[in-house]
């Protein structure tokens, strides 16, 4: 912990896309026992992104077995408004839609909140952080900055997206800011220095010999940088 009320908590949300789907529930349970805070559930519809992963029925199965699990549902779907009811009923905790997938962001956010979920919005690598207006940020619980192109696991980390994290952190110190794509111990310092407090790590965690150690390393980097940022804010 950073020890200051001005710090954003470090949150580690390993991506289930990198686990063994044949034992998804067991993998989610294992990774939380190793220290993860959330599990990042990558929902792909084959339209917004070319791949298909899983949807509400799978999320419902995980929720039934692990009712306290906080599932950060990353909705890589062409119509984010359409799936809110299903994901909420399945036990989704946070509904994370893409900025690029809708022209009515406030309608999506309103419905997410009506269904009792946290509202988060994702920006693709080509989308500038300036699309997150003061009005949008006021309604959002989190913004996700993609550090790879969505739709595929195991891509190479794109550090050129980190200035967007820094720009958002400067404008919105109270907002959760998540990074997703190729994130792990080798680049978490860069992500944390930019201001990210939520880290999605797939292969780096699920593929590690010692996931607990990897999660601890990522958390320590975020806590360290959040403490520095809090010092600057209070100075």
**Side-by-side strand order of the widest sheet:** 1-8-7-6-5-4-3-2
- List unreliable stretches of 5+ residues: none
Proportion in β-strands: 15-25%
Helix/strand order: EHEHEHEHEHEHEHEHH
Mean pLDDT: 94
User: Which structural class should the secondary elements be placed in?
Assistant: alpha/beta
* C-alpha geometry: globular
Explain what this protein looks like in three dimensions.
The mean pLDDT is 94. This protein has an 8-stranded parallel sheet with strand order 1-8-7-6-5-4-3-2. Helix 2 (56-65) runs parallel beside helix 3 (84-90). With 235 residues, the protein is α/β, with parallel strands linked by helices. It has helices at 24-33, 56-65, 84-90, 105-114, 134-139, 162-171, 188-194, 203-206, 211-234, and strands at 11-12, 39-44, 71-76, 94-98, 118-123, 142-146, 176-180, 198-200.
């Amino acid at each position: 912990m950073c020890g200051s009320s001005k710090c954003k908590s470090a949150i580690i949300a390993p991506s289930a896309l990198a686990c063994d789907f044949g034992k998804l529930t067991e993998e989610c349970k294992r990774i939380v026992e190793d220290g993860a805070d959330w599990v990042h559930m990558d929902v792909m519809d084959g339209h917004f992104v070319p791949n298909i992963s899983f949807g509400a029925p799978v999320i419902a199965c995980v929720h039934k077995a692990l009712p306290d699990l906080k599932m950060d549902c990353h909705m890589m779907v062409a119509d984010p408004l359409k799936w809110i009811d299903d994901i909420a009923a399945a036990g989704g905790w946070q509904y994370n839609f893409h900025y690029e997938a809708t022209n009515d962001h406030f309608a999506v956010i309103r419905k997410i909140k009506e269904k009792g979920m946290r509202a988060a919005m994702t920006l693709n690598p080509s989308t500038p952080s300036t699309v997150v207006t003061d009005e949008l940020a006021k309604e959002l619980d989190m913004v996700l900055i993609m550090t790879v192109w969505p739709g595929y696991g195991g891509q190479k980390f794109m550090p050129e997206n980190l200035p967007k994290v820094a720009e958002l952190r400067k404008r919105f110190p109270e907002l959760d800011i998540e990074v997703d794509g190729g994130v792990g111990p080798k680049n978490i310092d860069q992500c944390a220095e930019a201001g990210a407090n939520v880290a999605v790590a797939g292969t780096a965690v699920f593929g590690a010999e010692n996931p607990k150690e990897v999660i601890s390393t990522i958390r320590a980097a975020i806590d360290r940088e959040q403490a520095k940022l809090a010092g600057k804010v209070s100075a």
